[in-house]
């Protein structure tokens, strides 16, 4: 990836949220590099995603070697491991990634991410609940 390439997105974590995000971005034609520390998951996704790396995203040194600082956008899709989520988010912010999005499970988790300077917090369950409410009432067009 070239520095600040317009369409490159770094995705950390290949759980249900991260893998769907990475796959969708790739289908939309974006350059995606996905990182997960779980060997089996990396193996599983290496057939579908073009760039999958097995690495610990909480290590600044590892992420620098991976070229994380070259991305303009990154998404931390680690939810249940709050410590890993916060550390990985901090590393990306320290590496000056311009736009860091992080997934949060609880409001408290999201607040910590905001305090360390994340650009966007995503609450998948809350967002899905909101979306389904709009879908149920046939008001999706208003919602979008
Ligand atoms: P989902 O709900 O999207 O399935 P989740 O909320 O259960 O995910 P986690 O299981 O906490 O989220 O993390 C998602 C992924 O992030 C996992 O595949 C896990 O291996 C990966 N992960 C966790 N810690 C690290 C880390 N330090 N570096 C890289 N990847 C990590």
Automatic annotation (TrEMBL):
GO BP, sorted A to Z: potassium ion transport
Stretches assigned to the RCK N-terminal domain: 6-122
Top-level taxon: Bacteria
GO function terms (MF aspect): monoatomic cation transmembrane transporter activity
Coiled coil regions in record: none
Protein name: Potassium transporter
Residues of the full protein shown: 2 to 145 of 224
């Amino acid at each position: 990836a070239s520095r600040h390439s317009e369409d490159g997105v770094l995705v950390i974590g290949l759980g249900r949220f991260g893998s769907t995000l990475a796959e969708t971005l790739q289908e939309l034609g974006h350059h995606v590099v996905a990182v997960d520390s779980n060997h089996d998951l990396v193996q599983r996704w290496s057939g579908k995603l073009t760039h999958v790396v097995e690495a610990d995203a909480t290590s600044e040194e590892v992420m620098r070697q991976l070229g994380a600082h070259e991305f303009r956008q990154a998404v931390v899709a680690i939810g249940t491991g709050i410590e890993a989520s916060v550390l990985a988010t901090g590393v990306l912010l320290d590496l000056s990634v311009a736009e860091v999005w992080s997934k949060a499970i609880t409001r408290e988790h999201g607040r910590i991410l905001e305090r360390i300077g994340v650009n966007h917090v995503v609450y998948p369950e809350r967002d899905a609940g909101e979306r389904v409410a709009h879908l149920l009432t046939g008001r999706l067009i208003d919602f979008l």
